[in-house]
């Protein structure tokens, strides 16, 4: 009887034992299920993104036709009164429109900053439309404009590449024929980056072969440092350098000497 019971238990174990490939099959089924769910979710998200992008492009096209095409052409080809926008990219459109320089109020030596004419959503639609028609420089990533670069190296790069127009402290300066380099005080890091990569007005283009992304991040960090740290020497006199400082000394310094001299002479008489 004991032998029979033992044989019965062994038979039951054989009957209940899983096939060696059962675990492999379960893993494959699990992977396929997970992959299928992920693919469906990704496809759905991609479809939503594409639909949203297309909606932005359509809205931007309407805004462009109503506000920009008369100067830049319906196909971005440019006209006698406005340059082509083919290849300018999203960065250029965002810079020009979000600083109020465009639409242009009146012709002149250069477009000047003025109150913005569009909402943020409309600006996004405009630069998305132009970028979709012809690719070009895009908006900066957060890492580049975060202000976490090397401020000392950024100051050196700024003095070499930018100070001849914008002044060593970013105060701006006059150029020829009524043109000028604007002050960089208070300018957002996004606009500084966009100006470097698109070269608005009289500014040259600094692509990644001229200044790497790290170089641009360092320059932006330097300008942020200037904004956050006022002049330690007292009145900065507009940060215009020796001209304003010399004028201050000439008017107030020599003026004080002359006044004291006159007072001493009058007293002695």
From TrEMBL:
PTM remark: Binds 2 heme c groups covalently per subunit.
Pfam families assigned to the protein according to its UniProt record, in alphabetical order: Cytochrom_C, Cytochrome_CBB3
A Gene Ontology term for the protein's cellular component: plasma membrane
Top-tier EC class: translocase
Topology relative to the membrane: Multi-pass membrane protein
Residues covered by the Cytochrome c domain: 55-134, 149-227
InterPro entries reported in the protein's UniProt record: bc1_cytC-su, Cyt_c-like_dom, Cyt_c-like_dom_sf, Cytochrome_c_Oxidase_Subunit
Membrane-traversing stretches: 247-266
EC number(s) on file: 7.1.1.8
Catalytic activity: a quinol + 2 Fe(III)-[cytochrome c](out) = a quinone + 2 Fe(II)-[cytochrome c](out) + 2 H(+)(out)
Subcellular location as annotated: Cell membrane
Binding site for heme c 2: 162, 165-166
Binding locations of heme c 1: 68, 71-72
Subunit structure: The cytochrome bc1 complex is composed of a cytochrome b (QcrB), the Rieske iron-sulfur protein (QcrA) and a diheme cytochrome c (QcrC) subunit.
Name this protein carries in UniProt: Cytochrome bc1 complex cytochrome c subunit
Protein's organism: Conyzicola nivalis
């Amino acid at each position: 009887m004991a032998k029979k019971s033992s044989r019965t238990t062994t038979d039951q174990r054989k009957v209940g034992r899983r096939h060696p490939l059962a675990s492999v099959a379960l893993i494959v089924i699990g992977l396929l299920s997970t992959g299928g769910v992920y693919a469906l979710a990704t496809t759905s998200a991609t479809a939503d993104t594409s639909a949203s992008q297309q909606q932005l492009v359509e809205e931007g096209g309407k805004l462009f036709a109503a506000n920009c095409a008369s100067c830049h052409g319906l196909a971005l080809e440019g006209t006698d009164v406005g340059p082509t926008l083919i290849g300018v990219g999203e960065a250029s459109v965002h810079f020009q429109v979000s600083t109020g320089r465009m639409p242009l109020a009146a012709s002149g030596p250069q477009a000047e900053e003025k109150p913005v004419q569009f909402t943020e959503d409309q600006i996004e639609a405009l630069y998305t439309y132009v970028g979709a028609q012809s690719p070009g420089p895009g908006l900066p990533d957060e890492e580049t404009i975060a202000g976490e670069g090397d401020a000392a190296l950024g100051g050196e790069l700024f003095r070499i590449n930018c100070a001849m127009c914008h002044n060593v402290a970013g105060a701006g300066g006059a150029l020829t024929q009524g043109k000028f380099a604007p002050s960089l005080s208070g300018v957002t890091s996004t606009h500084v980056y966009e100006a470097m990569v698109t070269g608005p007005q009289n500014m040259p283009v600094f692509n990644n072969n001229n200044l790497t992304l790290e170089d641009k991040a360092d320059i932006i960090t330097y300008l942020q440092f200037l904004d956050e740290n006022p002049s330690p020497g007292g009145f900065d006199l507009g940060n215009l350098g020796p001209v304003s400082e010399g004028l201050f000394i000439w008017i107030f310094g020599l003026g004080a000497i002359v006044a004291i001299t006159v007072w001493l002479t009058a007293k002695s008489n």
